[in-house]
Every structure is written in C-alpha cells, then in structure tokens.
From TrEMBL:
Gene3D superfamilies: Tetracycline Repressor, domain 2. Keywords: DNA-binding, Transcription, Transcription regulation. This is TetR family transcriptional regulator. Residues 6-66 form the HTH tetR-type domain. PANTHER family: HTH-TYPE TRANSCRIPTIONAL REGULATOR BETI, HTH-TYPE TRANSCRIPTIONAL REGULATOR RUTR. Residues 29-48 bind DNA. GO terms for molecular function: DNA-binding transcription factor activity; transcription cis-regulatory region binding. The lineage of its organism: Bacteria, Bacillati, Actinomycetota, Actinomycetes, Micrococcales.
Amino acid sequence: MEMASSDTRERLISAAADLIAASPGEDFSLRAVCDAVGVKMPTLYHFFGSKQGLIDAVVEHGFDLYLGEKAAMESSGDPIQDIRAGWDAHVAFGLTNPGFYTLMYGKVSPGHSPAGQSRANEILKGLTSRAADQGRLAVSPDQAAAHVLVSNIGVTLRQIILAQPDPELSHAVREGVMAAITGTATGQGDALNAAIEVAAAHPHILGATETQLLVEWLGKLSREVS
C-alpha cells in the first residue's frame, strides 16, 4: 500500500511536470493533472495539500534532474574552468527545460527560496572556495558565487523569454563574470594571475595535465613574489 501511495505521488508530480513543460510560464489545471493519473482531486490534496504544494514538489523534481546532470559532469581539476562548465550546463538545462527552469528560478517570493536552490548553490560555493584557496579570486568566495549565479540566471531567463539561444551573449557575460571575480577585469590581478586565467580558460592548447601544472606553478610564483 505504501509503495502504491509513493507511486501515485510520483505520477502526479510527473503529470504536472509534463503539463508545465508543454506550456512554460502558463498556469495548469489540477483537474488535468488528476485526469492524467486517473485519480480524484482529494487524492492530490492528500499528497500535496494545495496547488502550491504540488508546484513545490515539481520544483524539487526539477532540481533533482538538474543536480543529477551536474553530478554526472567530470571535473577538469580547475575550479574556475569548472565554474565555466557549470555556467554552460546551467544555460543548457534552462533552454532544454524552460518549464522547470521558470519555476526553479523565475518565480520568486520575498525571503523564500526552494530547498533545491541551496543544494545547487553549495556546489558553486565549493568551487569558489577552492578557487579562493588557490589565490585565484579578487573577491570573497560567497560574493564570487553570488556574482556567478545571478548573472547565469539572468542570461538563461533572457534566452528563455526570447525563445532562442544566444551563445555569444552567454559567452560574453560568462567571461565578464570570470574576469570580475578573478580581478583581471579591473587590473586587480597582476600579470601572473592574468596568465593563470588565460591558461585555465584554454586547457585544450597545452593539454589538461600541463595546464593544471602551469596554473599551480604560476600560482605558487604569484604568492611568493607578492
């Protein structure tokens, strides 16, 4: 009985997700969700309490999908490069799943954020903390993470609103953010730090292993002479 109840709950979430994905940004009918699963309205209210409860469950489902994709990504070994890859993956998820994304990041309530956002934010903060440990940031790890996140969300929502990808915009904003948090945009970083970020941004030129060694050597040299 417990397994059947869990299955019904998941089917209701899946049905709501399908309706949201079919018409991103538009309202959906609870009756349509129930009809898709073959249950009565009281069953839906039993599991979720309200329409908002169902929406919250769909948002969590969206974050589960998003974080599942994040977990499957391989680390380059360089935190700044991993932030770049995470940025691109974030945009790609939003463009592929606009219905989920607009619920995850486009619907805001003052003083409230979905629990799934915290899980995603911790991954980003882990990367900015590693970058700070390497002496790669011109700002605090928290500020760097916030800078990346708000810019990433803005770029993604703009492309969803326009209903077309804009890779040039995304790349330009991404690199502007990378320059800002590493200090290379305003001259806060010296030539060695600038060289580190150039190498990290183009690992294919020297190769991943060689680039990582170069970043480590230049970072050590920068710390010793500063």
